[in-house]
Amino acid sequence: xxxxxxxxxxxxxxxxxxxxxxxxxxxxxxxxxxxxxxxxxxxxxxxxxxxxxxxxxxxxxxxxxxxxxxxxxxxxxxxxxxxxxxxxxxxxxxxxxxxxxxxxxxxxxxxxxxxxxxxxxxxxxxxxxxxxxxxxxxxxxxxxxxxxxxxxxxxxxxxxxxxxxxxxxxxxxxxxxxxxxxxxxxxxxxxxxxxxxxxxxxxxx
Length: 205
Known about the structure:
With 205 residues, the protein is an alpha/beta fold. The chain has six helices and nine strands, in the order ααβαβαββαβββαββ. It has a seven-stranded mixed beta sheet with strand order 3-2-1-4-5-9-8. Strands 6-7 form a two-stranded antiparallel ribbon.
């Protein structure tokens, strides 16, 4: 799927549906907060949420007084949903961009993605993502990447996805990244079905 096709798809999704009408919705980002704590989150760290869209993780980080937060999503419609909830939030940067072509102008301490990487199903897009990840993390920075597990769904939002275990994800990221933690997770959709995910935390060497 091309960048333009991805943009059209996700703008259509977030224009047609409320935030709690999509399978990946979670009312509270408890697991992400737990993983960020394990990764060493402090309020003085810089943080970027990839594919953050309408996610409520940014709300939680604002409440925790993390001062330097960026949310990147391909869809401006998704970002507007989060912005409408956080009209008084200072220190949040909203970035409408495709992660495979985004050129970060700074380095971050923490990278979080529970929504984007598994939609990249061809090698060139995956490697473009890894290139961006290297540029966006400072040395010693940590990346939390959640994807559908190897026995998880084969499609999401009508699109094919790539499925991973921690080791296969490590193989795609390459030797610049060291696997620190990994865990499986059963996500419950708003309509009560279960989806198997894996979350892995890496450190940029």
